[in-house]
Design goal:
By secondary structure, the protein is an alpha+beta fold. The chain is about 50% helix and about 10% strand.
Length: about 675
Amino acid sequence: MSKDDRFAKQRIADDLEEPVDEAGNLARKLGLTPYPVNYWVVDYDEMNELIAYGGFQKRYPHWRWGMQYDRQQKQGQFLGGKAFEIVNNDDPAHAFLQESNTLADQKAVITHVEAHADFFANNRWFKMFSDGAPPRAASEATEGGPDRGPDAAGMLARHGDTIREYMQDPDIERGEVERFIDHVLCLEDNIDQHQPYSPVETAAEHFEDIEGVDVVDQLDELDLSDEVKRQVFDDEWLDAQADDEDGVTFPAQPDKDVLGFLRKHGMAYDEDAGKAVEMEDWQAEILELLRREAYYFAPQKMTKVMNEGWAAYWESLMMTGERFAGDDEFVLYADHMARVLGSPGLNPYKLGLEIWEYVENTENRREVVDRLLRVDGVTWRTFHDVIDFTEVQDRLEPPEWLQNAVEHLDELDPEDPRVDAESLERARDGDLDAEKYPWKVLTYEGLAQRHYSLVKPQYRGFVSRVSQEELERVSRYMFDDSRYDSVEAALADVDYTRGWERMREIRESHNDVTFLDEFLTQEFVDDNDYFTYEYTHASGDYRVTSTDHEDVKKKLMLQFTNFGKPTVVVQDGNYQNRNELLLAHQYNGVMLDTKQAADVLERTFELWGRPVNLLTIVKEFDDHDVEVAKRRDREPEPEEVGKRLRYDGKEITVEDVPWSEVEHLAATDIDYNTKPDEWTA
C-alpha cells in the first residue's frame, strides 16, 4: 500500500470516528447490547478478499478462496453488485468499510453492524460454539470476563498456520493436503449444529473389528474391570457390542455429526497395501480443525434471515427515525436501502425485516388489546362493536414534545421517565448538540414511545384487524383482574416497550427455522403477499399452488432446515459386519441429486478408507401416468422407492432396496424438529 493510500484511509477513518461512537451510543440507548466493534477501512480489492475469506484476514491456504474472490469480483464488475460491509462474529467484532462508499453508505453500514454485533452477542446459537470452544490464551481470559465471546480471528489464524506448516513439510505433499481438505469441505455442513461444539476425543474407539478380530472377546480375555473399560472405551461403543451378537454395530443411535464420526472412526485407504490404515497425524488434525470451523460458522447459516432482518430493522430506525442520516444524505440512504431490500430471489433482509416488524406489531397489539379488554363494558365478543378505533389511534400517538423533543427543550420535564435529565441539562447549557442527536435527551422508554409501531401510517389499521380468536385467547389468559372505567384510562397504562422487549426475547432464543415456524402466520402471508409455486408435470412449468401459510411455511423451512441441505446421518459404522459405512438420508419429500450424492460418497471414502453406502428414497413417475396427467391437467402420483448407493473405491453402484430398509427415513408429511429445547435436550 502506498503512502497516499494510507493517508486517504486515515482521513476516512478520522471522518468516521464520530459516527462510529455515536452509532454505538444510540444502539445501546435503544436497548441493544453489542460486542465492541473494531472498524477497518479497506479498498475494493481488500473487501473482495475479505468476503472470499468469510470476513477474516487470515485463513488456511486453499484454492476455494481464489475461486470465491474471482466470483465476487465478477459479480461487482458484470452484475452491478456492491459490497457495503462485512462483519464477523467475534469479541470484539471486526467490521470492514469500503473506502469508496459515500458517507451515507458508511453510516448505514455502521448502524447495521452495531445491530449484527448485538445479535452475535446475545443469540443462544452463537453462544453454543463459544461454550464449547477452546479457552482463550491466559493473557486474554480476564479482559472480557467469563462471558466473553469467541476469539474467531485468532482461532482461524492458528488453523491457517497449522495447515500452512503441513503444506511446507518436505515429508508431506502439498497436493495431498489440498485434496484432503477438498474431501472434508465436501461434508462441512454434515455436523450436528444443534449441539455445542466439543472436540472429538481419540482413544481406543479405533479398535473396531478392522481385520475381523473379535475385539469383545479380546477384552474378555484381558479380564478388565468395567470401570477400566469405561475409562478407555466409549460408552456408546461398548453398549453397541453388548447389544449385537452378530457383529459390531455402532453408533447406537443415528449420528448427525458425520464429520465427528469420521474423526473418531475414519481411516485412510492405502492403495499399495489394498486396505484401510490409520490416518496420518496431519490428516486427523486437519479434519478436526475444519470440523471446528464448521461449528463456528453454523450459527451464521442458521440465523441468516433473523440476523439480517434484525440489522435492517435497527439500521432503518436509526438512520431515518433518529435522523442519523443527515438531510443531505437521506436520499442516498433511501437508495441504499432500496437496493438491499430489492435484491431478487429469496432475500433474507426483506423477509427478516418483515417478520420482525410483524412480531413488534403483534406484541404491541396484544398489549393494547389486553388493556382495552379491561375497560368496563368491553368483552372479547363486543370488542369490535364498542371500541372506537379512531380514538384508540389518536390516544396512542406520542405527544408533540416527544415527537419533536429538540423544538421543546425548554418544556421537557427532567422528572419524566421518558426524558434523560442529565443530557437535557447539557443540551440546555449548550454542551450537547440536540439538533444533531435528538435521541440523547430521551430515555429508552421515551424512544420506545416515540417509535411506537402501531401509530405509523402503514400500520394504523392493525389494532382494528384483531381477530375474534385472538381476542378470546387474550381474554382467557388475563390473570390480572384490574379494570378501567374508560378507554383513555386503559391506554394511559400501555407499556410502549413491549414490542421491543419481545423482539429481544426472540433474538435470544430462536433461529431461522423456529422463527419462521412460530411467526409466519396467515395474517403475515396475506399482508406481505407470499405464496408457493411448484413445478407441474401437467404443464411442464412452474405455477402458483397455494397462499396458505402452512404451505408457504413448509416451502420456506425447506430452504433453512439443515442449512437447506439434505440431512444425512451415520446409521451404521459396520454395515453388514464388513466395516462399511452406512449413511442414511432423512427424506423430507425432496429427493437427493443422485449424481452429487455419488460424488460425495467418493469423497467420504477417502475419509473412511472402506466402502461407503447411502440409503435414500426417490420418487419415480410412470411415463403413462405423466401423459394421462398432462391431458387431464392434474399431477401424476409418484411412487417412492428405496435406493442404496455404494462406492467401493472403484465404482458407484445403485440398487433398489426393500421398503422396510428405508421406511424409517420417510416423512409422513415434512418432518421438522424445530424446538430448541428438543435439539439441546
